[in-house]
Amino acid sequence: MERKETLLKKIFLSTLYLSAFTFGGGYVIVTLMKKQFVDELHWIDEEEMLDLVAIAQSSPGAIAVNGAIVVGYKLAGIAGVLTAVLGTVIPPFLIIAAVSACYQAFRNNQLVAWMLEGMQAGVGAVIASVTFEMASGIAKEKNKISFVIMAVVFAASVIWQINTIYMILACGLLGILLTFWKRRRKQ
């Protein structure tokens, strides 16, 4: 087992790196978190990553911060949470401070506007990639219930335009019921 100081340093540097080089919001950071925490560092497995995303999405606040909280707590308790949150919030804080100081210069710059438009296209591609990757992970598990839930929620959102809050609450309740049902079946 790693020394706690070494682990906290790795948590801080990982979350700092992810936060500093992620443009496009919370869903983009999910892909990078998966690559970093699941594929490279092996701190969590793919199923835990899906749980992390569900928790991060359903909790108030930014997905990046919520995800950092979950990973930090799993790895090093409260010290891990504080370290991960600090690493996650420093880059956006510094970037926003710098941009706000130079806002007038950036405001009407055509080059900056073109760069932001180009970044939007890249963000869309990354979000599509995350969605495909996570959905294929559910399909590979041969967990028919998860696949049906995913399809129903997609249809409820796109076709019937049901409020996302209701779907999150319903899926949370369904998850609790399924967990109790599985535990009872094992007994």
UniProtKB/TrEMBL annotation:
It comes from Muricoprocola aceti. It is a multi-pass membrane protein. It is found in: Cell membrane. Its main location: membrane. The keyword Transmembrane helix applies. Belongs to the chromate ion transporter (CHR) (TC 2.A.51) family. This is Chromate transporter. Keywords: Cell membrane, Membrane, Transmembrane, Transmembrane helix. The lineage of its organism: Bacteria, Bacillati, Bacillota, Clostridia, Lachnospirales. The chain crosses the membrane at residues 12-32, 80-106, 112-132, 144-159. The keyword Magnesium does not apply.
